[in-house]
Amino acid sequence: MVSVKTKPELIQAINELMTVVGDRLGNDGDGDAERDFMAARCPQRLHAKVRTLPTSAMHLLAEIAEGPVSLVGLAARSGRLKGTVSKHVQRLVEAGLVERRPVPGNRKEIELGLTADGEVVADVHRQLHDEMDRGARDFLLRYTGAELQVLVKVLRDLAGAHRDGVRLVPPAEP
C-alpha cells in the first residue's frame, strides 16, 4: 500500500533528508576520499601537498590553471576576497605549485602561473571533478525528466534563498 503524506509531513521529511544528504556529501570521518583520489594519481613527492592544502587553495589552483592571472584578477575570477586569495596563493607558492612572475613590459604587475608540479596537481584536481560529475550524472539518470525538472526548481529556489534570522526565505518570484 502506498502511503500518502500530508504537505507538513513531506516538508518534515525533506528537512530531515537535507541534513542526511549534507552529512553524506561531506567528509565521512573515515578519511578523505577526494584527497585519497588525488594522492593515488600524483607522484609520491606531491602526496603531502594534496593531503594538506585547503580545498579553497585547490580550487584557486584550478583557476590559475585557466591561464596566468594577477592576484586581483584571481580574486575577481573566483569570487573571493583579495585577502583570502592572497593567503591561499602564498600557501600554493610555498608548496611549489604556483609561481609569481613579472608581466612582460610591465614593471609593476605580477602574474600567477603554475609550476610543473602545479600542472600535475591541477590536472589531477580536474580528473577528480570529472569523476565526481560522472558519478552525479550516473546517479541522476535514474530519474525521469519531470522528476529532474522539479529537483532543478527546488535547488534553484534554495540557491536563491536568503536567511532572515534563522528563517529561510525564498527568492522573489520572477
TrEMBL record:
Pfam families of this UniProt entry? MarR_2 (PF12802)
Q: Where is the HTH marR-type domain?
A: 7-160
Q: Which PROSITE patterns match?
A: HTH_MARR_1 (PS01117), HTH_MARR_2 (PS50995)
Domain of life the protein comes from: Bacteria
Give the matching InterPro entries: ArsR-like_HTH, HTH_MarR-typ, Metal_resp_HTH_trans_reg, Tscrpt_reg_MarR-type_CS
Q: Which residues belong to the signal peptide in this entry? A: none
The alphabetical list of record keywords is: DNA-binding, Transcription, Transcription regulation
> CDD domains per the record?
HTH_ARSR
For this entry, the protein name equals MarR family transcriptional regulator
Q: Which organism is it from?
A: [Mycobacterium] fortunisiensis
Classification from the root reads: Bacteria, Bacillati, Actinomycetota, Actinomycetes, Mycobacteriales
